[in-house]
């Protein structure tokens, strides 16, 4: 006997009603699920770090290269490496800094991982005996309130890493400028040592000439000859120190395969920089230091993590159950599973993050104090070095040069003893050493001061 169409429709109507109700329930829950959808894209990438370094200090970061990619030889090797070129090469070729830049990609990977959704679980129970065949689709709904907090904390961590890399770039630039000043000082010491050899050799020649004509004894020729040999030894030591300084700088630039003596460095301008007053420098440092920004962002990120840990007290799972009970049609029904926070309320993680938040606040205060100390120390060093440069260049060196000229003329005429000429020569050479050290200290202090205020250009 055949069933009528009306009887079949009447048997399918309850199933359609139940399916419609289940769909309505899931359509009602869909906006809640979409509320947990937040963007996992971050603008804090390598381009952001490069832009910050360019705006703050005028540094060029360059393009990213794989570690095995060959680096072309810098064009500045033909004309001479300037301080600006050394700083740029340090940022683009320094292996340690390039390794630090990779942490930004790690932070972005953590951000992507924080935004991933938990896979739904489909469970099935086959029919046996009189029990029906059942299906259950379970979906963890914790993302409704946990995912935005988790992704927000990861976004802030990415920003913190980016600001930390800006600070690291400023550190690399400062170290390159300090190393450049060390190379300049070492080269200047070599030139002073060469001048000492020439001066002492000239005095020894005069003494030997006087000995040959009988105006001096053989004993009087011993001291000038010994001083000439000592000058040669000082030159060899100065040349060794210059080679070591060059090797250290070239190694940081990935140019250690070159002959250190063949690389030429252009002299730095001796014009004094216009440095703002100390209160203005402190205000600029507190407002612009990227490590301070990173510390502030770290506090905010830890606070977001604390909210996330508190939200993990509750767990919530949505489910859609289906029963296949022949000859009846499919029965659909929604369900939910809620974890009861009776024993485990995530107390340990919450307490840990709360302590980390307090620790981050103390670390920020300590860093702010360190920033103020860095600015004051660098400013004091620059002021002292500038006074020393002016003192040596404008007063001591001219007077000692004039004294050596007059004592040498008197010695040639036989009116002055050699001891006086030797002492005046020693004082002049020592004054030139001190003046060169003062100029190097001035350049080092200026590099440290620029870093201390966040890469300001002055």
- Distance linking N and C termini: 101 Å
> What structural class should be given to the helix and strand makeup?
alpha+beta
Percent helix? 55-70%
- The rough form would be described as elongated
The proportion of residues in beta strands is: 5-15%
H-E string:
HHHHHEEHHHHEEHH
- Runs in which pLDDT lies below 50 for 5 or more consecutive residues are 1-12
The number of helical segments is 11
Rg from alpha-carbon coordinates: 38 Å
Indicate the mean pLDDT.
84
- Report strand order across the widest sheet: 1-2-3-4
Please describe the biggest sheet, giving its number of strands, its sense, and whether it closes into a barrel: 4 strands, antiparallel
* Secondary structure: number of strands: 4
Quick structural overview:
The chain is α+β, with helices and mostly antiparallel strands and 458 residues long.
Spell out the blueprint of helices and strands:
Layout: H1 5-35, H2 46-57, H3 76-79, H4 83-93, H5 95-114, E1 121-125, E2 133-140, H6 147-212, H7 222-252, H8 278-288, H9 290-311, E3 316-324, E4 330-338, H10 347-412, H11 418-452
Antiparallel strand pairs: 1-2, 2-3, 3-4
Give a verbal description of the structure.
This protein is an alpha+beta fold and 458 residues long. It has helices at 5-35, 46-57, 76-79, 83-93, 95-114, 147-212, 222-252, 278-288, 290-311, 347-412, 418-452; strands spanning 121-125, 133-140, 316-324, 330-338. It has a four-stranded antiparallel β-sheet, covered by helices on one side. α4 (83-93) crosses α6 and α5 packs antiparallel against α6 (147-212). It is elongated. The model is unreliable at 1-12 (pLDDT under 50).
């Amino acid at each position: 006997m055949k069933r009528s169409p009306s009887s079949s429709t009447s048997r399918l109507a309850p199933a359609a009603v139940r399916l419609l109700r289940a769909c309505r329930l899931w359509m009602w829950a869909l906006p809640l699920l979409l509320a947990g959808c937040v963007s996992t894209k971050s603008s804090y990438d390598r381009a952001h770090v490069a832009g910050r370094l360019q705006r703050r200090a005028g540094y060029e970061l360059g393009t990213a290269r794989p570690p095995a990619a060959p680096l072309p030889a810098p064009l500045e090797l033909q004309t001479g490496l300037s301080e600006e070129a050394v700083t740029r090469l340090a940022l683009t070729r320094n292996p340690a800094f390039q390794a630090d830049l990779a942490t930004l990609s790690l932070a972005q990977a953590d951000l992507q991982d924080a935004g991933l959704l938990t896979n739904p679980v489909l469970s099935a129970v086959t029919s046996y005996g009189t029990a029906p065949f059942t299906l259950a689709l379970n979906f963890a709904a914790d993302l409704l309130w946990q995912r935005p907090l988790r992704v927000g904390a990861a976004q802030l961590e990415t920003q913190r890493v980016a600001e930390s890399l800006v600070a690291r770039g400023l550190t690399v630039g400062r170290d390159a400028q300090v190393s450049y000043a060390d190379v300049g000082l070492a080269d200047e010491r070599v030139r002073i040592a060469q001048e000492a050899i020439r001066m002492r050799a000239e005095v020894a020649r005069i003494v030997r000439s006087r000995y040959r004509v009988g105006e001096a004894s053989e004993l009087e020729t011993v001291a000038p000859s010994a001083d000439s040999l000592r000058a040669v030894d000082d030159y060899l030591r100065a040349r060794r120190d210059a080679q070591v300084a060059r090797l250290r700088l070239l190694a940081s630039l990935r140019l250690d395969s070159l002959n250190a003596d063949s690389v030429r460095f252009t002299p730095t301008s001796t014009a004094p920089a216009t440095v703002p007053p100390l209160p203005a420098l402190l205000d600029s440092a507190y407002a612009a230091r990227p490590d301070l920004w990173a510390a502030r962002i770290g506090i905010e990120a830890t606070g977001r993590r604390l909210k996330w840990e508190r939200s993990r007290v509750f767990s919530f799972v949505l489910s859609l159950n289906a029963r296949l009970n022949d000859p009846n049609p499919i029965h659909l029904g929604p369900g939910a599973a809620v974890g009861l926070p009776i024993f485990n309320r995530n107390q340990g993680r919450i307490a840990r993050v709360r302590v980390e938040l307090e620790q981050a606040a103390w670390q920020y205060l300590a860093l702010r104090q360190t920033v103020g100390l860095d600015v004051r120390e660098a400013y004091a060093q620059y002021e002292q070095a500038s006074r020393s440069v002016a003192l040596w260049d404008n007063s001591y060196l001219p007077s000692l040069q004039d004294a050596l000229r007059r004592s040498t003329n008197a010695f040639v005429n036989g009116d002055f003893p050699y001891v006086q000429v030797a002492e005046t020569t020693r004082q002049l050479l020592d004054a030139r050493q001190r003046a060169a050290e003062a100029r190097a200290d001035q350049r080092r202090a200026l590099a440290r001061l620029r870093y201390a205020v966040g890469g300001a250009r002055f």
